[in-house]
């Protein structure tokens, strides 16, 4: 039996008190009854006393796990510690309570936030080696979409959009890459990785040969945690074929402050502020995915950009039409403020130190697990590495391992991705996990390996210490129960 | 400063295990010419925005406090236009700051994320109640991107059609986003007054967007728009776009009006304006065929595989990019989860009764203000129907900036000068009143409007 917030109802009691206002007593609403909710259309949200709301969500939080609870080695998600001062500062009234359209005409009353946005763009440009940024995209995939729009617009302006209608992605790419390209009406070509787990230059040459490629999307380090060693050749080949190179910044934590995508030949990039720059993941968002470009694409960035002239900051629109806008207002400003704090607190040397420790931590865990987890691509790993369930006895598989990790008190890694590794286990510890935490993770995985040998049932039946055991995904999808109303109906049956 | 927990001796220990002498050796598969050595690293810091060294927590606090003080947080705000100034109950900040929720990520591991999954499930239930629809997703980026997603859904239902008709004044910021996002897709946008809708419907139309309340604050008869559309062509989808989610508590629900997709912005439900973001896009449908076309995360309730207990899990993922890759209808991955949680707690904190009361106070405050402004010579309200918490006044002369300046001297953010948004709207002002505008502030605003013409 599940108790939901709807079960805590006490009609006539709520957490805020019910408002009245003398000034408007007797003022008519002036809306005809036909446009108002009637009895058949009543608002079915219960009144709930404050104490019950607090206990309900406190109880829910106890059934959840965040970075504040312990290590969260979810590969490609960079679950690093989120500094608390950044929360305090983002909630200053001078940031939190300002309207997006104030100062629209004269930029007055928003000089502080404009300076912050302006400096954020400059810092990101210097860190990544790009020339200009838009802070408007709300997430990584939203940035990818923006980047593909820029590619589309660029080839349209050259009159080549009928001819160049393909985007290349490697088979190790995040699912968002092909989905973003497709949402800009590009056809997606997937190329296979070579034996080292890197972009196969022959495959790339073949894909480029027909001359219909508009661009390539790559992460570096790639999703196997490996640096694309031939990256300069890759970007040159794409450029020579008249295409643009897009950098998916999901894995920037593997090289931030050490080298720059701009120097590798990328023309467009996005950066996930919620990953590399430590803003809290919030249970799935909000994030932010600023997009940076080289100078020749500057005018195609969407949204207004900040400028500084005679000591005054302003919003300016691109000289030409630009792309337009990809979000109602200026972007996920609250997220940008936190990332600004992080960059200012660390400085370039601190960012570099963070990357070094992230890479050190991942390599340390990989070395300590060398007799436990089989890692099919044996090159230097960066911020993450990808193992496989191949070496686990008694057919214990990746899902079993992940579920058993939950029982043993840590979050699971990313699993079954990338698909070219059988039973992939993608581990990204991040730089903010102390040595004892890394050793704890190592010992848990070693213990699971031992259990797989000696008492496999305990692993295959995991989790056993969570609020629920493994859930029936097939049933969930075949018979969707998506609201409390539907749940009640199901329980009545 | 940094947030790395290792003592130097621990770093040395790990380096030994890994087999490197210097940390720089970890990057031995990067071509040398790409590496930032100390000298090159310093050379890239051109603007001065990023320093080589960081700062202490106190220095950071002083820096940010200084920047925040250069922004004006007004005592009273009379602008809306898609971002609204509403009261946020204390429990919203208190509960959403719990680290187990705030520092988690997408609940991929259902058994360890039952708390967040249940919160999403309850949010979906509340949005279903607010919109009068059957199914809601777990959030999209904002109202504008959600509207784009709704149009893409409509296109997937009507593949051979290419026209979207917008009825009512669409928020111009949304319109730009829609035009930008649909640029590669060859979809045409046409804007008409709701009364002239029938005449603009032909075989190329795949969707009607009914904006209500619209950008000027006018409430339209959405049921009539649905009827007029469906009578002509039943396969056209009607999408209702709502930029002020609080209106849902009071006005006839999209579900009752018979729309196919209810979509919009729920920033009003417990989310600070924060210069326009992060916000909260919502999207709800009633038809189960459309459910399978809906973008974003969806949480469902199911049973244990080997047990009888119920639990929550992300479901219907066959729609999503991580499974379908280029065949997915949407690329969304990270969404606006924490704002979804804020909205759920906000709706719980006000309750159905409180939501209706706040909505009513908004309408009445706006009506009071509207009536007082109409008494001023030269002011005319141009809304042709009833309004929610926004309305548009026309002024004969061009003293709008004078009014805004006068407001500012009283610490009030006055109306939005619509001429700065669209040249065709010169001489128009968009006013918004909410429960936050105290009687005195409203009277001060009225006085400023009078001064403006004096």
Structure, explained:
- The complex is a heterodimer of chains A (493) and B (454).
- Chain A is an alpha/beta fold and 493 residues long.
- Chain A folds into 2 domains: 88-346, Type I PLP-dependent aspartate aminotransferase-like (Major domain) (Aspartate Aminotransferase, domain 2), CATH 3.40.640.10; 349-473, Aspartate Aminotransferase, domain 1.
- Chain A is 36% helix and 10% strand.
- Chain A is built from 16 helices and 12 strands.
- Chain A has a 7-stranded mixed beta sheet, sandwiched between helices.
- The model of chain A has no long low-confidence stretch (mean pLDDT 95).
- Chain B has helices at 8-18, 38-43, 57-69, 90-96, 99-102, 114-131, 143-157, 172-182, 222-232, 254-257, 288-291, 321-324, 337-374, 400-409, 439-453; strands at residues 76-77, 135-136, 163-167, 188-192, 205-211, 237-242, 261-265, 281-285, 299-303, 310-314, 379-381, 390-395, 412-413, 416-417, 428-432.
- Chain B is built from 15 helices and 15 strands.
- Chain B is 38% helix and 14% strand.
- With 454 residues, chain B is of the alpha/beta class.
- Chain B starts with 7 loop residues before the first helix and ends with a helix.
- In chain B, helix 6 (114-131) runs parallel beside helix 13.
- The longest helix of chain B has 38 residues, at 337-374.
- Chain B folds into 3 domains: 8-69, no CATH class; 76-83 and 352-453, Aspartate Aminotransferase, domain 1 (Alpha-Beta Complex); 90-346, 3-Layer(aba) Sandwich (Aspartate Aminotransferase, domain 2), CATH 3.40.640.10.
- The model of chain B has no long low-confidence stretch (mean pLDDT 95).
Low-pLDDT sequence parts of chain B:
none
Oligomer: heterodimer
End-to-end Cα distance of chain B, whole Å, is 57 Å
- Looking across the biggest beta sheet of chain B, what order are the strands in? 2-8-7-6-5-3-4
Q: Tell me the CATH topology of the largest domain in chain A.
A: Aspartate Aminotransferase, domain 2
- Figure out the total of helices of chain A: 16
Q: Spatial order of the strands in the main sheet of chain A?
A: 1-7-6-5-4-2-3
């Amino acid at each position: 039996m599940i108790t939901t917030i709807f079960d805590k109802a006490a009609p006539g009691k709520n957490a805020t008190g019910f408002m009245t206002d003398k000034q408007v007593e007797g003022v008519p609403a002036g809306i005809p009854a036909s446009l108002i909710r009637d009895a058949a259309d009543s608002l079915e949200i219960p009144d709930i006393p404050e104490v019950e709301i607090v206990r309900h969500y406190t109880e829910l939080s106890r059934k959840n796990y965040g970075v504040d609870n312990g290590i969260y080695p979810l590969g490609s998600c960079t679950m690093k510690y989120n500094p608390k001062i950044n929360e305090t500062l983002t909630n200053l009234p001078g940031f939190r309570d300002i309207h997006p359209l104030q100062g629209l005409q004269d930029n007055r009353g928003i000089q502080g936030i404009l300076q912050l946005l302006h400096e954020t763009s400059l810092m990101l440009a210097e860190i990544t080696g790009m020339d200009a940024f838009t802070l408007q995209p709300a997430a990584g995939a939203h940035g990818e979409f923006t980047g593909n729009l820029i590619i589309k617009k660029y080839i349209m302006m050259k009159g080549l959009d009928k001819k160049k209608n393909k985007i290349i992605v490697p088979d190790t790419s995040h699912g968002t890459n092909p989905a973003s390209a497709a949402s800009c009406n590009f056809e997606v070509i997937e190329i296979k990785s070579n034996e080292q787990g890197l972009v196969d230059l022959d495959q790339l040459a073949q894909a480029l040969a027909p001359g219909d490629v508009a661009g390539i999307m790559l992460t570096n380090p790639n999703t196997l945690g490996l640096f694309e060693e031939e990256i300069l050749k890759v970007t040159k080949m794409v450029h020579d074929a008249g295409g643009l190179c897009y950098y998916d910044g999901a894995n920037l934590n593997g090289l931030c402050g050490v080298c720059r995508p701009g120097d590798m030949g990328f023309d467009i990039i996005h950066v996930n502020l919620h990953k590399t720059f430590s803003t809290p993941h919030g249970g799935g968002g909000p994030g932010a995915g600023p997009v940076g470009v080289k100078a020749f694409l500057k005018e195609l960035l969407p949204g207004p950009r900040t400028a500084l002239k005679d000591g005054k900051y302003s919003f300016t629109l691109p000289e030409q039409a630009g792309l337009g806008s990809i979000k109602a207002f200026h972007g996920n400003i609250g997220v940008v403020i936190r990332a600004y704090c992080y960059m200012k607190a660390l400085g370039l040397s601190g960012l570099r130190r963070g990357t070094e420790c992230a890479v050190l931590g991942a390599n340390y865990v990989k070395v300590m697990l060398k007799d436990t987890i089989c890692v099919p691509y044996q090159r230097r790993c960066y911020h993450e590495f990808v193992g496989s369930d191949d070496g686990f006895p008694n057919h214990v598989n990746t899902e079993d391992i992940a579920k058993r990790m939950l029982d043993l008190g840590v979050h699971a890694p990313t699993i079954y991705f990338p698909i070219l590794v059988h039973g992939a286990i993608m581990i990204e510890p991040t730089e903010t996990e102390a040595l004892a935490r890394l050793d704890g993770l190592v010992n848990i995985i070693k213990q699971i390996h031992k259990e797989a040998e000696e008492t496999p049932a305990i692993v295959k039946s995991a989790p056993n210490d969570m609020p629920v055991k493994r859930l029936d995904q097939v049933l969930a999808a075949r018979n969707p129960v998506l609201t409390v109303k539907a749940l009640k109906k199901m329980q009545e049956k | 400063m940094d947030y790395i927990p290792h003592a130097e001796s621990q770093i040395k220990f790990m380096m030994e295990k890994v087999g490197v002498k210097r940390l720089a050796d970890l990057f031995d598969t990067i071509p040398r010419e790409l590496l930032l050595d100390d000298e090159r690293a310093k050379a890239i810091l051109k603007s001065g925005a990023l320093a080589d060294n960081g700062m202490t927590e106190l220095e950071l606090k002083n820096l940010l406090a200084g920047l925040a003080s250069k922004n004006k947080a007004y005592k009273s705000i009379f602008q809306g236009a898609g971002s609204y100034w509403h009261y946020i109950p204390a429990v919203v900040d208190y509960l959403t700051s719990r680290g187990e929720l705030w520092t988690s990520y997408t609940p991929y591991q259902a058994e360890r994320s039952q708390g967040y999954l249940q919160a999403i499930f309850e949010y979906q239930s509340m949005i279903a109640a607010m919109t009068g629809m059957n199914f809601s997703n777990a959030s999209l980026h904002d109202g504008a991107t959600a509207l784009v997603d709704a149009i893409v859904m409509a296109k997937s239902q009507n593949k051979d059609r290419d026209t979207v008709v917008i009825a009512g004044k669409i928020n111009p910021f949304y319109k730009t986003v829609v035009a930008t996002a649909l640029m590669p897709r060859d979809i045409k946008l046409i804007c008409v007054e709701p009364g002239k809708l029938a005449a603009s419907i032909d075989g190329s139309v795949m969707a009607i967007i009914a904006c209500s309340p619209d950008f000027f604050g006018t409430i339209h008869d959405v049921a009539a728009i649905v009827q007029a559309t469906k009578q002509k062509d039943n396969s056209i989808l009607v999408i209702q776009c709502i930029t002020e989610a609080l209106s849902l508590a009071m006005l006839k629900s999209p579900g009752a009006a018979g729309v196919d997709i209810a979509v919009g912005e729920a920033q009003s439900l417990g989310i600070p304006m924060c210069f326009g973001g992060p916000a909260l896009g919502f999207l709800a449908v009633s038809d189960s065929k459309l459910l399978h076309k809906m973008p974003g995360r969806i949480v469902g309730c199911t049973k244990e595989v080997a047990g009888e207990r119920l639990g929550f899990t992300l479901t219907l993922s066959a729609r999503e990019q991580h499974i379908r890759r280029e065949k997915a209808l949407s690329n969304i991955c990270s969404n606006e989860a924490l704002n979804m949680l804020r909205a759920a707690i906000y709706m719980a904190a006000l309750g159905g009764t409180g939501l209706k009361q706040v909505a009513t106070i908004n309408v009445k405050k706006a009506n009071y203000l509207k009536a007082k402004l109409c008494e001023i010579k030269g002011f005319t309200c141009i809304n042709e129907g009833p309004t929610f918490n926004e309305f548009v006044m026309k002024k004969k002369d061009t003293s709008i900036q004078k009014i805004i300046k006068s407001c500012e001297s009283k610490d009030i953010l006055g109306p939005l000068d619509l001429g700065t948004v669209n040249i065709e709207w010169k001489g128009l002002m968009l006013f918004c009143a909410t429960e936050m505008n105290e009687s005195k502030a409203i009277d001060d605003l009225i006085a400023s409007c009078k001064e403006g013409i004096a």
